[in-house]
TrEMBL record:
This is Oxidoreductase. The keyword Iron applies. Residues 222-322 form the FAD-binding FR-type domain. Keywords: 2Fe-2S, FAD, Flavoprotein, Iron, Iron-sulfur, Membrane, Metal-binding, Oxidoreductase, Transmembrane, Transmembrane helix.
């Protein structure tokens, strides 16, 4: 293979992911301080349990609003952090929401029971019957516990995505009920006009972000670009590429390595969205996705007719050249995970080494394209075949293929098991985490 003799200038040292993450942490910390200040301004109850319960409720509300922001799919955040990481933060924040609101309910109930000499159960019933908004809060908490239970890993594996997503939509009902409870019974609302304005702003921004990112932006982009299927090309017995065209695609902010949630508006599939990466760098005229028949949604792509209307949400993902830290790179693909890798190779500058891991030569989807593209770009291409064991991407093998791997950015995409093994190998080789780029398809409601 030929290699490039000249090296591009090193990418900027300012890491977009660090900037976005720091911004989110700062936003949460500042709001936590503001909540504490308004809480102190409202005055304290004589009962310690009630004081702690009210504070837990306020922080639960703040975390719930922050949780909405994380899954609003705002382009600025998604391009810098990635939907998979934002989803993981959303889940961890959800655990915090459940525990803070449970603490709020328990402490408030026991605190008032202590003052009234009632048992906790009767006290809770009394609060629900006499205090406006408490019954709504109890319904919201029950819904939140159901959503949380179905989001646990053991339950998530047993539920179809559509079922889980439908249940998850009740989170928005929970938000509305929790907010009306806060308006009706929250001491900060009654104690200070400034606090009321603050909480209305917090909830308005959170819900507005969801409305903008999940509804307005996808609708606007699809109305503008009017996507349609231009061609359906079988790549092998179980792999197919779909070419999509539309208006003004040069203004669609898609980058190599990103993915869309695709809805092909046929009679039997219009309601189902599937995440597929772009398998070629966007050229302003056509978008291409390549998928393997691993489920009903991907298997049906082969039957899609040319001219079928397409509704695409996105582009999503931080698996792009935006996050490069080194002038040279390694791209490691496994199976159909080659699709974003192939697109990235087209977009990358500087010398690249491509490692394509498959079971057999017949499984090497888009290999001819990769070979031609590698030749054009002056990249090295290694096709690694064979069974899973022994591990052919173990540390010793990676160093043999790429002796200077520690000085390169590593882009990785493939089946979960392979990705886990390669990440372990990279850690054993001491490749800095900031140079390792990967993304998993992970959707949040």
């Amino acid at each position: 293979m030929t290699t490039l003799q000249s090296r591009t200038a090193p990418p900027t040292a300012i890491r977009p992911r660090v900037v976005a993450r720091t911004g989110l942490y700062t936003l949460l910390a500042v709001n936590a301080a503001v909540v504490a200040w308004f809480f102190a301004q409202a005055g304290f109850a004589s009962n310690t349990l009630i004081v702690l319960g009210r504070l837990a409720g306020l922080y639960g509300a703040l975390l719930m609003a922050f949780q909405l922001l994380l899954v609003a799919r705002l382009p600025w955040l998604d391009r810098r952090i990635g939907m998979d990481r934002l989803t993981a933060w959303h889940r961890r924040t959800g655990i915090g929401v459940v525990w803070t609101l449970l603490t709020h309910a328990v402490f408030i109930t026991f605190g008032y029971a202590q003052e009234s000499s009632m048992d906790p159960v009767n006290q809770l019933v009394n609060l629900a019957e006499t205090v406006e908004g408490v019954l709504r809060a109890l319904v919201a908490l029950a819904l939140l516990l159901v959503v949380g239970a179905t989001s646990a890993r053991w339950a998530r594996r047993r539920l179809a995505y559509e079922t889980w997503h439908f249940i998850h939509l009740y989170t928005y009902v929970t938000v509305v009920l929790a907010f009306t409870h806060q308006v009706a019974a929250g001491t900060t609302f009654t104690a200070s006009p400034a606090a009321r304005a603050y909480w209305y702003t917090v909830w308005g921004v959170a819900l507005g972000a969801v409305f903008l990112g999940r509804l307005v932006l996808p609708l606007w982009r699809n109305l503008r670009h009017r996507l349609r299927v231009a061609a359906v090309v079988p790549e092998s017995d179980d792999v197919v590429s779909v070419y999509v065209t539309g208006r003004d695609l040069d203004r669609l902010p898609a980058r190599a390595g990103q993915f869309f949630l695709w809805r092909f508006l046929t009679r039997d599939r219009w309601w189902q969205a599937n995440p597929f990466s772009l398998s070629a760098a966007p050229d302003g005229r056509t978008l291409r996705l390549t998928a393997k028949a691993s489920g009903a949604g991907s298997a049906s792509l082969r039957r899609i007719q040319v001219g079928t209307r397409v509704f695409a949400e996105g582009p999503y993902g931080a698996f792009t050249t935006l996050h490069r830290t080194r002038p040279e790179s390694v791209l490691i693909a496994g199976g159909v995970g080659v699709t974003p890798i192939r697109a990235l190779l087209e977009d990358l500058e500087g010398h690249a080494v491509v490692i394509y891991r498959v079971a057999t030569d017949r499984d090497a989807v888009l290999y001819d394209e990769l070979r031609d593209l590698a030749l054009t770009k002056g990249a090295e291409l290694h096709l690694v075949t064979g069974p899973v064991a022994p591990d052919k991407l173990a540390p010793r093998e990676l160093v043999r293929l790429v002796p200077d791997i520690g000085d390169r950015d590593v882009f990785l995409c493939g089946p979960p098991g392979m990705m886990t093994a390669v990440l372990r190998s990279l850690a054993d080789l001491g490749v800095p985490k900031r140079q390792i780029h990967f993304e998993r398809f992970s959707l949040a409601g």
